[in-house]
Structures are given as C-alpha cells and as structure tokens.
C-alpha cells in the first residue's frame, strides 16, 4: 500500500512539473519568432534561388516550392534567450518524465505484475512512454520547439486517468495472468508513443506547409520551425517505427488470444480496431511510398490513423456499444 501511495504521489508530482514544462515551452516559443526585417531578407534570398532554378535549367520545369526562409537551421539563428528557455523547459520535461516512469514502476512493484492491467495503468504507462521517447529524441534533434505539443497531451491523458479511469492497485483477472501481458501491451503503448509524437509533427507540417505557400505579413514561431519537407520526413520516420511496433502488437495479440480464448480471431471490438489502426497506417505507408502522391494527402491518412488510435482507447473502452472480450480487463 505504501508503494501504491508513493506511486500516486509521484504521479501528482510529475503533473506539476509537466505543467511547469508546458509553460516553459510556451515561453520558449515566444522567443523563437523571427524578426520582421530578417524574414524579408531571407524571403528575398529564397525568391532569388527559385528564379535561378527556373531560368538556368534551360527547359520548362515545375516550379519548386520555396524552402522556408525561417527554418531552424539554414536561414534561422535561434537567439540566446530562446535557447536558454528551451533548455529550462527540456530539463523540466526530463524531471517530469522520470517522476512518471518512477510512478509506473512503483505501481508495478505494488501489484507484483506489469503495471498495465487496466485503463488507468495503460494510460499512465503510455503517457510515460511518450514523455520518455520525447526526452530521448528532443536533446539530440533540438526538438524544443515540439515540447509544448507533446507535454500538453501528456497532461490531458494524466488528468483523464486520475479523474475518470482511476483504479485502485489490485490483482489481475485470471485470463490476464500471462507473460503476454508484459509483451503485447508494452509494445502497444510504445507504438502509441511514436504515433503520438508523429501526429504532433504531422500537424505542424501541415501548418508549416500552408505558411510556406502563403507567407504571413508578420512571422511567428511557426516560421522558426524546420521546413515542411523536413517535418514531413520526421513524421514519416516516427510513423514507420510506430507501424512496425503496431504490427508486432497485432501479431502478439492474436497469439495471446489463441492461448486465452482458443482462437486467433474472435471479432472482438478491440481486435477489430487494432486491425483498423494497422490498415490505416499501412495505407499511409503505401501512399507515402507511391511516386506522384502529394505528401500532404498522405499525412491526412496518417492523422486519420491517429484518430483511430484515440477511438480505440476511448470509445471502444468506455462506450457500452463496444462491449467485448477485453472489457473484463478495463482495456
């Protein structure tokens, strides 16, 4: 009981620190906006480069979309103030993620099993996976600009977990007492972590692309982000990792179903939606790899896949219409 209480205390502490990190990331973005004078100069350079491509080719060529004049790389220099604020926000995220991981581990020790046997535990474990994955990737890739779009969903999930999904630490139902719980579910929430980060990058890609096509009169932090093409490649890479992990989740779930229920497939709502998610992301991968398909359209498919992930976790679990064989676990 002491471990369970400590797990809850660490969870509340992580939420407090994540809130501070969210505010710090917002503070950081406020310092990233390029100056208007710099943006005009950079925009002029971009226009010149485009003209050289069109005139110097010697043959009619489809106009290349201009690269962003404010990309966080060539053409954009982050101010010292912005870097300092980003570092503070990132350090807070490290601390909050460590507290959340500690909460999940203590919950597992308290119940003597993998701590993802019900919706509350899955939600907190998935949030911890998102925080940990972002923390590992952010420093190396200088993703401080992404922080507020990751930390905010984590806070929302933790708030939902505590207010709606909370379950006291306890034993598992007999059917869940299998080593597959530690394998199947853990891979599932790691896949969800990559899908979540990819969805955030994908949404920023769509916004960034629109701003490149119709540059604003006054730049904001959006113009300090990496170019739309860079954001799209990043989202694709993250979705690819998530898709591979989700494929394993689907296969592992079928094997566990055979052991628990005597058949690989039972048309259970959870099974069906797991396959729906896999199908949508497979369509995205196919679209992304097909020559001539607009990457923007492919990204819409990926975002539809993430909406399916949200439906799978919320409606399928909470609405009585979807009652199935997974409901005894609260998942």
UniProtKB/TrEMBL annotation:
Region: Disordered; residue ranges are 55-77
- State what protein this is by name: C-type cytochrome biogenesis protein CcsB
The organism encoding this protein is Terrabacter aeriphilus
Instruction: Report which gene this protein is encoded by.
Output: ccsB
Upper taxonomic lineage: Bacteria, Bacillati, Actinomycetota, Actinomycetes, Micrococcales
Q: Where is the Cytochrome c assembly protein domain?
A: 116-320
The record's section on InterPro entries has: Cyt_c_assembly, Cyt_c_biogenesis_CcsA, Cyt_c_biogenesis_CcsA/CcmC
Protein's membrane topology? Multi-pass membrane protein
The subcellular location is: Membrane
Segments spanning the bilayer are 12-30, 88-110, 116-138, 145-167, 179-207, 236-257, 272-291, 303-325
- Which key words tag this protein in UniProt? Cytochrome c-type biogenesis, Membrane, Transmembrane, Transmembrane helix
Is Metal-binding among this UniProt entry's keywords? Answer: no
Primary residence:
membrane
User: Does the keyword field hold Ribosomal protein?
Assistant: no
């Amino acid at each position: 009981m002491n471990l369970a209480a400590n797990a809850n205390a660490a969870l509340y502490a992580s939420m407090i620190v994540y809130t501070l990190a969210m505010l710090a990331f917002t503070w950081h973005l406020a310092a990233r906006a390029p100056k208007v004078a710099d943006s005009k100069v950079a925009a002029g350079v971009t226009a010149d480069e485009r003209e050289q491509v069109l005139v110097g080719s010697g043959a009619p060529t489809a106009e290349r979309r201009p690269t962003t004049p404010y990309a966080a790389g060539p053409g954009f220099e982050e101010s010292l103030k912005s870097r300092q604020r980003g570092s503070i926000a990132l350090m807070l995220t490290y601390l909050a993620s460590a507290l959340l991981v500690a909460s999940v581990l203590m919950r597992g020790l308290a119940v003597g099993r993998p701590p993802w046997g019900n919706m509350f535990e899955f939600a907190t474990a998935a949030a911890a996976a998102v925080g940990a994955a972002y923390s590992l990737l952010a420093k190396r890739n200088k993703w401080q600009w992404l922080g507020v779009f990751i930390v905010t969903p984590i806070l929302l999930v933790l708030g939902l977990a505590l207010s709606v999904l909370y379950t006291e630490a306890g034993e598992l139902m007999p059917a869940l007492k299998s080593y597959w719980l530690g394998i199947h579910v853990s891979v599932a929430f790691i896949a969800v972590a990559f899908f979540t980060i990819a969805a955030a990058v994908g949404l920023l890609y769509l916004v960034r692309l629109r701003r490149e096509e119709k540059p604003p009169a006054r730049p904001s932090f959006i113009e300090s982000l990496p170019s739309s093409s860079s954001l799209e490649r990043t989202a694709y890479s993250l979705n690819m990792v998530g898709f591979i992990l989700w494929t394993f989740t689907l296969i592992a779930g079928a094997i566990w179903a055979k052991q628990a229920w005597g058949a690989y497939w039972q048309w259970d709502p959870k099974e069906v939606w797991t396959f729906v998610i896999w199908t949508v992301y497979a369509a995205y991968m196919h679209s992304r790899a097909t020559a001539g398909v607009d990457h923007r359209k492919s990204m819409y498919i990926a975002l539809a896949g993430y909406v399916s992930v949200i439906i799978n976790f919320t409606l399928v679990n909470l609405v009585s219409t979807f009652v199935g064989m997974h409901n005894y676990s609260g998942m």
